[in-house]
Amino acid sequence: MTAVGIDAIEIRTGKLQLDLPNTFAPKKGEDPEKYTKGLGLETSSFPDVYEDIVTMGANAAKSLLDRKGLAPDEIGRIDVATESAFDHSKPVSTYIAGCLEQVYDGDFRHANKGERKFACVSGTQAIDDAYNWIRAGRNRGRAALVIATDTALYERGDPGEATQGAGAVAMLVTEDPSIVELSTEQGYGSMDETDFLKPNQQFPSVDGKRSMQVYLSRMREALEDYESIVGPVEPDTVAYAPFHTPFPGMVRKAGLFAYRHITRNTSIEDELADSIGRQPREDDYGSREAYEEAISEYMDALKGTDRYQDWYAETIEPTLGLSRVVGNWYTGSVHLARTSALRDAAERGLDDAFVGERLLVGSYGSGAQAEIHSETVRPGWREEIEALDIDEQLASRYDLSFEEYTQVHEVHDYDKSVDVEEFTVPDGEFVFTGWGRMNERTYDYVE
Ligand code: COA
After folding, report:
1. Catalytic residue (one of 244, 335, 373, 409)
2. Is there an atom of ligand 1 within 6 Å of 213 CB?
3. CB hemisphere CA count around 331 (13 angstroms)
4. What is the pTM of this model?
5. Going from the N-terminus, what domains does the chain have, and what CATH number goes with each?
6. Boundaries of each Hydroxymethylglutaryl-coenzyme A synthase N-terminal domain copy (predicted)?
7. Tens of pLDDT along 91-127?
8. Is 117 touching ligand 1 by the criterion CB < 6 Å?
9. Residues of the chain with pLDDT > 90: what percent?
10. Contact 40, 320 (CB under 8 A)
């Protein structure tokens, strides 16, 4: 069977940054270490006044098409995953295609366009749709363009304000891909939950602590479902485990739960038993409370073992690099985690030896659904990852003062109309220019 997977990735960060420990925490009267150590965040990205989900998505897509030398008629499908859409009917993919058609000869007239919604898991779902379309033989040799783009803003004063971010990840899904092949096998954990939602409102209603519990429960179910197909996942068979990263502290928790799960009934559990005992089994306890207390004690002990810390340092920590400096990109977040992992492999000097290695990818969307699948690294991975210019983009972000941050938040609040000067100068990119006669948002390409 021909491999299908991700052939190219381009990332576009919002062009502004907020320094969380040094600018945000002092104004909130909080300890900076809540951000650096607790949540695991240094800075978050914000869109300048002329940026939004369309410009960031279109700019990422343009970089991707240019780098791969692709013409519009070589793209058979454009799917945008977002939870920041401003239009209940016309999909963001049409706005992005319209932008791209301003600068390319040819058009996307015969491409199937759509928009995927299921909170942060929809980027992965859009990749699934592309995979299925190619596997079904409906692509006529063409590639699918998947764009995960979000402006993750919370109401001012909401606890989620600490974890904001903005950016887009564009991915090309093809046969015989250069970066990773996707597994056919997938596991799901899905339940009707009320942890994070936006019922006809721009900023989310969030039960933050509940969303963390739901994340862990649905991920566990997805892992069990995945293992029911492929058999038990063994820690040493996974090079990296990129998970959805609303903030790195969430993944620190998820990593520990995952390790407990995948080491149960293994020689690793046996080896650790001398120092921390065996994992508690529910049948050995008289009540659910007693069992949960024992689990909690075991987890604390497991966290302190060298064995766990080594696994975490190799398999999880490298997936958090970009998230730490950009914040939550909702639909793009797990795709940043994959990219961070591959960047780590490139920095470690891995090349051919990394081909064939496996990533265990865990996506999550509130509401709620988790999905787990695996990806196998392909021979062209390193060249693709080294072509990214995300370090230059991050280094050139404008560093906001707290007052400027409050202005930027208002500029992107649909209920407010404020006039704020742009902080950066557009240069060879799509920009938001205003509203058209039917209240549609309008865009231009600035040379
Ligand atoms: N030094 C070190 N760590 C500190 C600290 C300090 N001075 N102060 C706080 N922390 C730690 C806390 O112990 C906590 O870590 P823990 O959960 O491991 O105990 C972490 O920093 C966050 O602090 P907390 O007080 O829990 O933050 P909060 O109540 O302001 O909100 C969220 C945190 C995640 C609930 C909030 O940001 C949110 O609602 N986010 C949006 C929803 C979300 O992202 N959900 C995730 C699933 S998708």
Report:
1. 244
2. no
3. 31
4. 0.98
5. 4-446 (3.40.47.10)
6. 4-175
7. 999 999 999 999 999 999 999 999 999 999 999 999 9
8. no
9. 100
10. yes
